[in-house]
Amino acid sequence: MSDTAFDLVVIGGGPGGYVAAIRAAQLGLRTACVDKRGPLGGTCLNVGCIPSKALLHSSHHFAMAGQEFAEHGIAFGKLDLDLAAMMARKEKVVDDLTKGIAFLFKKNKVTHFTGFGRIDAPGKVAVVEEGGKETALTAKNIVIASGSDVAPLPGVTIDEKKILSSTGALSLPKVPKRLAVIGAGVIGLELGSVWRRLGAEVTVFEYLDRILMPMDGELAKGAQKILTKQGLQFELGVKVTGAKATKQGVEIAFEAAKGGDAKTLVADAVLVAIGRVPYTEGLGLEKAGVATDAKGRVEIDAHFQTNVKGIYAIGDVVRGAMLAHKAEDEGIAVAEILAGQSGHVNYDAIPGVVYTWPEIAAVGKTEEELKAAGVAYKTGKFPFQANSRGRTSGDLEGFVKILADEKTDRVLGVHIIGPAAGELIGEAGLALEFGASAEDIARTCHAHPGYSEAVKEAALAVEGRAIHA
Amino acid sequence: MAKEIIVPVLGESVTEATVAQWFKAVGDTVAADEPLLELETDKVTLEVPAPVAGQLSEIVAANGVDVEVGALLGRIEEGNGATAQKPAAKEAAAPAAAAPAKAAPATPAASPKPAAPAADLPLAPAVRKLVEEQGLNPAAIPGTGKDGRLTKGDVLRHLEGGQAPSAPAAETAAVETRGVEAATVETRGVEAAAREERVRMSRLRKRVAERLKEAQNTAAMLTTFNEVDMSALKRARTQYRDSFEKKHGVRLGYMSFFVKAAIVALKEIPEVNAQIEGEEIVYKNHYDIGVAVGSPQGLVVPVLRDADRLGFAEVEKEIGAFGARARDGKLTMEDLTGGTFTISNGGVFGSLLSTPILNPPQSAILGMHKIQDRPMAIDGKVEVRPMMYLALSYDHRLVDGREAVTFLVRLKECIEDPERILLDL
Fold this sequence. Notes:
The structure holds two protein chains of two kinds.
Chain A: E1 5-11, H1 15-26, E2 31-35, H2 42-47, H3 49-67, H4 83-107, E3 111-114, E4 116-121, E5 124-128, E6 134-144, E7 148-150, E8 163-164, H5 166-169, E9 178-182, H6 186-197, E10 201-206, H7 217-229, E11 233-236, E12 238-245, E13 250-256, E14 263-267, E15 269-272, E16 276-278, H8 285-288, E17 311-313, H9 324-338, E18 352-354, E19 359-364, H10 367-373, E20 377-383, H11 388-393, E21 399-405, E22 411-418, H12 421-433, H13 438-442, H14 452-462
Parallel strand pairs in A: 1-2, 1-6, 2-3, 6-17, 8-15, 9-10, 9-15, 10-11
Antiparallel strand pairs in A: 4-5, 5-6, 7-16, 12-13, 13-14, 18-19, 19-22, 20-21, 21-22
Helix pairs in contact in A: 1-9, 3-4, 3-6
Chain B: E1 2-6, E2 16-22, E3 29-30, E4 35-40, E5 45-49, E6 54-59, E7 66-68, E8 72-78, H1 125-134, H2 152-160, H3 175-195, H4 203-218, E9 221-229, H5 231-248, H6 255-268, E10 275-277, E11 280-282, E12 289-291, E13 293-295, E14 298-300, E15 303-304, H7 312-328, H8 333-336, E16 341-345, E17 364-368, E18 372-378, E19 381-395, H9 401-416, H10 419-423
Helix pairs in contact in B: 6-7, 6-9
């Protein structure tokens, strides 16, 4: 084969794309991956999951130093923040990881092209570099993994200086005195937490009258209480009608969602975090005849195939939760399908995590969903206040809630606020995959002293027999 | 590339099978021709070997699923396929779950395998507890969990199956009330379960049941009886037992005599060896005698082909081999089909007299029974003779009373006077 002819060309090198490319290569397909950014890893690695987690970690340390170290007997003089150093560390983490993916590509012999991927016809992809140079690739199959972009808010123009998207909010040169966040979803709350910890006054605006939709209602309420205690201010049930950059900062106009008096808030910066939208610019979908839906998502069938034979799509650009791990699992599934195996993603067992502290994590059905579906269920709840490990680390906030089928005891959903919730949720995902009952979790030995014991106790609580509460 | 594992041809007129047990799991490395799974049909269980060496990449038809000939069972990634992404929870050692043979298909002689789906996968903790407390056989409970595993719900459903509907769950959220109610349901479960146990019919048993009923519904079935004095046979056995075994390497039993005697009678009364097919009577010019033998899954009837051409020793050898193969579950489809007449021996179990049921599509079946010393009137004197009752069940649509009776009489004469077999009298 010539060096521009491939079995598979993946457009997009984010978690969906690079994983699909590596898996396909493992299965023996000659694979190329086209990405416009240069460094691999997509939004997640470069301006999403990874930099935000790095900053969350650093800012958490800063907050602990200021608020809790004294309790631990750690005394020091004045607490200083070197934001530039924090950002540099973040950048190094990102850099190391993107280099890691490049290494994985080399190891698995995936050919990497930098440039815009444009589908000229089924089986034909053009790599368009910045200068305009084009390289024509042929492929037996194409996977579109072009991901998503920031959702725009009408009336608000993002300049990444005072009016920010998550990308800008990850690289501010100094801590804003007051930060407004539009959107009380995962991204808004995580970045709001970062700047709050570093000293900013943070106000979060949300259209609905609750935060973190569509997570479990009780979970969201618990999270709101905890974040409020941490100093985040919430304006719920509110519609932002405009944000204007002024000399002082930003003037945010808002009113009650149902309509009412117009109000304003002046902040130094505002983060627009109302969601993300599928990104298909420059793909040439129209010319190639690939259908998209009203929301701009590429339409696919149960096997990730678009309406054009030989063209597939995965990740944020198609239906489903816009999560990196969902994209990764779809990447594996589509690669396996292309290699003649079957590939499946269990959409009912995809966890969602919010990396505030305490963390918030959930997998499976919420109480609202079960009620709406008329499913009879029982609940088991256990507070971290009663968890030995939580006591040793001073993490007393939050709880584990397990929802189980009333008759069969089968675990239907698990919802956690607490230390390392994002890790604890792994056990719950496994339980869902195997159709385990709450009793199975309760009868599995969990290490002591561990946060995961809270999961075990919540399972016991489903039967009304928690030991430690 | 993935190679498909297909349901092989199963035997004449057998179009369907059930996946009884996968021996390998997704992710396992397999050698070419290595047995991958066991299929259960109406007549036999058979193994499906791997078409190529490689890694089992997918199981499409899981345990318990019905498949047709040519259907896709799974796929193998040829050669050193890349490690499968699917989690393979295999390595844990299976608990010794007792699997009573009554519900299980025949197991291969090599290693005793539990018969039920996913029986070699460890039981979930809640399932373990329930199974122990209720004295259940996990192999007999259909599993709906991953790879056919038992979930707690499966076991609860199984327990509920035999009892009256339990009280509706309380609406209150009070933890104590819930606890009490759960205890009540559980106790009721314990009682009900102790009084009966539900076991799913194996495919084989279902099929046997169907065929027997079919036989009864189709044929005009009657039974005629006679008795035979076994003295002559006993004498022949005693006299020639040692030399027979020495020369032929097999014990001289009674079955060879009965098979041979039956053939003499069948030759004289061809209707007994014939079959009705639609509007025609098919007279068979060959003598394929089915001999009922016991197996772990029940009575099976392998067939002695062209028994008229077999010598006594060959008959005895064949029957012995059938018995061993039946025990090991190695009888093939050909072994069990095409018989023209069947001999069944209830005597080994102690039956004195019985009315055997026809083995469709055959028109007659001979029942042998227990040999019992009885006082008989011989030439005006009472003598104790070893007697056996004989029963011939026959299809009256084809075989008339006189023929049935004559058949039995001829057979009796050949047994009481074995020289008749030699002289074809």
